[in-house]
Specification:
This protein is mainly α. It contains 25 helices and no strands.
Length: 615
């Protein structure tokens, strides 16, 4: 019974299905991370038409909490991927995690691109550079994202502009995305987007600043007027380009990328071409035809780069941007060479001046005006000229009188290379003017010409920076030489008049000899006055000084002679009153009219009882 009751027919024997392997605690956590990440990432997957977020921006002011969740999900997804790579590299879950990561990275790429494009105005270099000191503390990872927003919210009431606030927020978002993509292994994709967009912005900004990429051949074919316009445009642009454009771009790179190697490569590729083109322009200008009239534009270019060199060296400090520094230095070298060549050409032009027409009235020679105006303008650049001529010793082609150049004494004020060079140019001009006196047939006029021109030079020196470069000793020596020329003019120009008067006007003289003195004086004075009526002394002080000196030399002697022998009573007893044609006051009046270049008629009256002038 027992057997019958408990025993049943035996069916075919089957193996029960194996139980699934037990999941570890770590694996369950990783699965959970993937599930959470999938729900968040797919929500913002723009390729999923069922997602209600497919047209929204993740990085917006309204979605700050969502952004934090999204970034945390990526961080947890990375952790899950690292776990499965180490435990089971062929696991299906790893593939799933990788696909989710690709989807997340595509979303961040789009956000990165959108922020860069839509915030062009907020991320312009001027905005970035103007508030770089306000930039928020740098973050080492996406885990600090919440701290960043808390930092911003605490400073919402700061007195900063809306554009600065938007710029700060945009840079914070870009850095957050960059940190996330780089940590996930998507550095190449992130950097590529950044370089393309920012390089186009830099190139466009340079274009709007008026910086053209002109070749040497194009510059050499330009008329000087056109080239000068390009130079002025470059001068207006370079300071903005360095202090705002490139400086701001360097700050932005530093803000967006935490890794120094990425900062360098991004900034280098974005700015190098534009900067090399910018700083290569002066070098090409320096290689064009060199004439003295282009000097000041060349000096302006040199000064601009020289003044900006500390910023250039600081901004383009990387090895990868050494081409920019080298280009700027090459431009300085070529511009310096051009300046030295033009100074040499200027000196040669002075020496080769071939003007053969004497200046009417012994006035200022055009060469004197041109040279002194040119040199005076050069003194405005004395600082950079010191650099340019420092290692350029002066070689004198032929010996010249030491008196022109001054004493070589160690205490001599002319000691700097610039001072020596400018003093030499003035000396060359004075020597050339010495040769011009041969054009004058009258010796007195030749001395007046020298006095006028040297006085013009001294006055230019005294009233400009040349005085500080050449020194008071130089001025004093050349003023003394002006007085010497003036004295020689008086002696030679009025020698006949002075010789016509007796040595002692109070001495007893025979009547015939008195008559002879008056006749000779009348003729000499009339001849001299007529001849010198067109002579000029442009400088008022020199003019008055010579007038006073002439009056003191002539009038007192004549007045004594006149008082003794030219009185009315004596004239009636001895000769016709026409013999005594000038009273002392008449001489003063005539001489007061001299050196203006416009005396009445250049003649004197022959029938005035007191020698009155004809009008």
């Amino acid at each position: 019974m027992r057997t019958v009751f408990f025993k049943s027919p035996s069916p075919a024997r089957t193996t029960p299905p194996p139980s699934p392997p037990r999941q570890t605690f770590s694996e369950s956590l990783m699965d959970e991370d993937i599930e959470v990440a999938q729900s968040i990432i797919t929500k913002w997957d723009s390729s999923d038409s069922s997602s209600y977020c497919n047209i929204d921006y993740l990085f917006s002011q309204e979605n700050r909490h969502e952004v934090k969740q999204y970034l945390n999900s990526i961080k947890h997804l990375q952790r899950a991927m690292q776990y499965f790579v180490s435990e089971n590299p062929v696991a299906e879950k790893l593939v799933r995690a990788q696909n989710l990561m690709q989807t997340a990275m595509k979303r961040l790429q789009k956000e990165f691109y959108r922020i860069l494009k839509s915030n062009r105005d907020h991320l312009d270099p001027e905005s970035v550079s103007s508030h770089s000191s306000r930039a928020s503390p740098s973050r080492s990872s996406t885990s600090d994202f919440e701290d960043e927003f808390e930092y911003e919210s605490r400073h919402e009431n700061e007195t900063i502009s809306e554009m600065e606030r938007a710029s700060t927020a945009a840079m914070a978002d870009l850095r957050t995305i960059a940190d996330c993509m780089i940590s996930a292994g998507y550095t190449k994709e992130c950097v590529k987007i950044y370089k393309i967009i920012r390089k186009s912005i830099i190139d466009e900004a340079l274009y709007h600043l008026g910086v053209e990429r002109l070749t040497l051949s194009q510059l050499q074919k330009m008329d000087w007027e056109v080239l000068e316009i390009n130079i002025k445009s470059w001068l207006n642009a370079v300071k903005v380009a360095v202090k705002t454009l490139f400086y701001g771009e360097r700050i932005l790179c530093d803000q967006v990328f935490s890794a120094s190697s990425l900062r360098e490569s991004c900034f280098s590729e974005i700015s190098r071409d534009g900067a090399v083109a910018l700083f290569g322009f002066p070098e090409n200008v320096a290689k064009c035809k060199k004439t003295p009239d282009k000097m000041f534009c060349i000096l302006d270019l040199y000064e601009a780069i020289s003044d900006l060199w500390p910023e250039i060296e600081s901004i383009f400090i990387f090895e990868s941007t050494s081409a920019v520094r080298r280009t700027a230095v090459d431009s300085l070298v070529k511009l310096g060479e051009a300046v030295r060549a033009m100074i040499t050409e200027f000196e040669t032009a002075i020496q080769k001046d071939t003007s053969k027409s004497p200046v009417p009235g012994g006035g200022i020679h055009p060469l004197t005006r041109y040279v002194m105006n040119y040199i005076t303008f050069l003194t405005d650049y004395s600082g950079i000229l010191s650099d340019i001529v420092a290692d350029w010793p002066l070689t004198v082609p032929s010996p010249l009188p030491e008196s022109y150049f001054g004493s070589p004494d160690a205490n001599e004020s002319i000691n700097s290379p610039v001072s020596v060079r400018l003093a030499w140019l003035i000396l060359v001009t004075l020597c050339k003017l010495d040769g011009k006196v041969e054009l004058y047939k009258d010796v007195g006029l030749s001395y007046l010409f020298l006095a006028n021109n040297l006085q013009y030079i001294v006055r230019k020196v005294r009233k400009s920076n040349l005085r500080f470069l050449l020194g008071d000793d130089w001025v004093a020596k050349h003023e003394a030489k002006v007085q010497q020329y003036a004295a020689n003019y008086e002696r030679m120009g009025w020698s006949k008049v002075l010789a016509s008067l007796p040595e002692d006007p109070t001495a007893s003289i025979p009547v015939d000899l008195v008559k002879d003195h008056f006749i000779r004086f009348n003729a000499a004075f009339e001849e001299t006055y007529k001849k010198q009526s067109s002579w000029i002394i442009p400088e008022a002080k020199l003019r008055e000084r010579i007038k006073v000196s002439l009056e003191k030399r002539i009038v007192p002697v004549y007045e004594e002679f006149y008082d003794n022998y030219g009185g009315v009573g004596l004239r009636k007893q001895t000769w016709n009153e026409s013999i005594v044609r000038f009273a002392p006051e008449d001489l003063r009046n005539y001489m007061s009219d001299l050196f203006n270049g416009s005396c009445s008629s250049g003649s004197v009256s022959s029938n005035s009882s007191h020698g009155g002038r004809s009008h």
